[in-house]
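input
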Amino acid sequence: MMTFDQAAQLLDDIAMEFPEAFYQDLNGGVQFEEDALPDPQFPPGEMYIMGEYVQDLTGNFIVLYYGSFAALLADEPDEVWEEELFATLAHEFTHHLEHLGGLHALDDKDAEFLRRALAGEDPWGDGEEPER
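output
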């Protein structure tokens, strides 16, 4: 399993791949927390929050949760960690950019995913999980 320090370095490398424009008004940058963040709407261990786009009194920032990745990817090779870190960071950047543009399409898509998952339906809406 990838350690916190290894994952943090990989996330730093991935974050540098995104254009400078993505960081506009992201005054808190990209943060990486050691803890897992289980989704409280689901039974323990069933669903984890991998990352969040946060807007609060301190500003705008993205946070990813190492423990959530570790809970789901413990036995996966480094390549899968890299793919998931990239996908999660891209997802959170999309939230940030939509916020800047006054849009909410990804918020709507996330809400629909959670609605389906909580209802016991296929949250992906296509009968398949996304490829890793």
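quick obs: DSSP finds four helices and three strands in the chain.
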